[in-house]
Specification:
The chain has 383 residues and is an alpha/beta fold. It is built from 16 helices and eleven strands. Strands 4-3-2-1-5-6-7 form a seven-stranded parallel β-sheet, with helices on both faces. A four-stranded mixed β-sheet has the order 9-8-10-11, covered by helices on one side. Bound molecules: nicotinamide-adenine-dinucleotide and magnesium ion.
Length: 383
Amino acid sequence: MKKRIALLGASGSIGQQTIDVISQHPDLFELVSFGVGRRIEEARGILEQFDVPVFAVQREEDAELLAAEYPDKTILCGDSGLIEIAKGEYDVLVNALVGFAGFAPTLAAIQSDHDVALANKETLVCGGELINRELALHGRTLVPIDSEHSAIFQCLQGNRMRQVKRLIVTASGGSFRNKTREELQSVTVEEALAHPNWSMGAKITIDSATMMNKGFEVTEAHWLFNVPFEQIDVLMHPESIVHSMVEYIDKSVMAQMGTPDMRLPIQYALSWPDRLELDEPPLDLAAVGTLHFAEPDFERFPLLALAYETGKKGGNLSAVMNAANEVANAAFRNHEIAFPMIEEIVISAVHEAEFEELRSAEDLYRANAWGDAYARERIRNIN
Ligand code: NAD
Ligand code: MG
């Protein structure tokens, strides 16, 4: 029996690589529904390759346009379209949406008794507690696609969770890892978008440059593996060859290595515990020669420190942090604010937010709206 896959964010970086993985294993995987945002050309491309009966687009005018081209397909649109896909008929949802928009579809998928392969880390950063509650309630699994978490997941296979001493999340340091804080004042969007090791979507590439992304990943690891923040460390590793590690109580350290290619973690999330062939040149460690490791500098990267702080305090704070970051990240990309303002806006949002417990999805939507409004107001006052 083929694994039936629903894919949200199909036009993005992870989405397109998921399409590639699916097309390499037509005997194992079947794309049964998908969602794209505004890039409807990508939808046409997918429909040329696969006979998919249902898909979603973001805008109504695009849905109408495509309805004329594909009269035999069910075409959904807007946020409700994503939810409908998530509630549909399939075996695993690959959530490759970017940002908080990914939360509601993840929740809907689990609540309608589906397993999830998750690239959308914002889901867990904001609502990890709610997601874990629903996973337990519905007896469903959520497997990571993020490379660090896939590495940890792989290092945990065959071992016992209670014998884990700590998780070690590796970090490249992003585009500005060799710049001082003073030098950050004048960096450009183009420079920020040039990641040294990985080719990714624009938002996460900026999040890597501020290391907000690594802070998110620490939080993501906390909820995925149920490990306290005190037992999750970040280790700088500029080569991005060791994707992360697990240290056990006997001091044995398991590491997962590979070339920086997201198709491996995507494929593993769909095939585990099996492994499948991947058309990728093997890792040549002799050619790499040397691997470097160093402690992270929390003063150089204050958003990494902030994520630990919000994670340990819990409640609404990580959601506020995420929402403010989403707005500030986009404003930087739109040339509305300077790079260091991202940090300033996100930090002040968290410090000015009133602490609240997250009891329900409604509480979470309120926290997100607050952080979003706060950041927008700050940016309005700057300009
Ligand atoms: P991307 O910007 O390339 O793609 C995002 C996708 O989401 C696009 O298809 C876009 O159309 C869709 N989308 C966004 N908002 C939408 C909305 N409201 N309605 C419908 N569609 C919407 O992003 P990406 O780099 O592929 O990242 C996706 C997720 O995976 C992010 O959470 C990111 O942090 C995570 N991630 C990405 C990588 C990577 O290598 N790109 C690695 C690890 C984790
Ligand atoms: Mg990652």
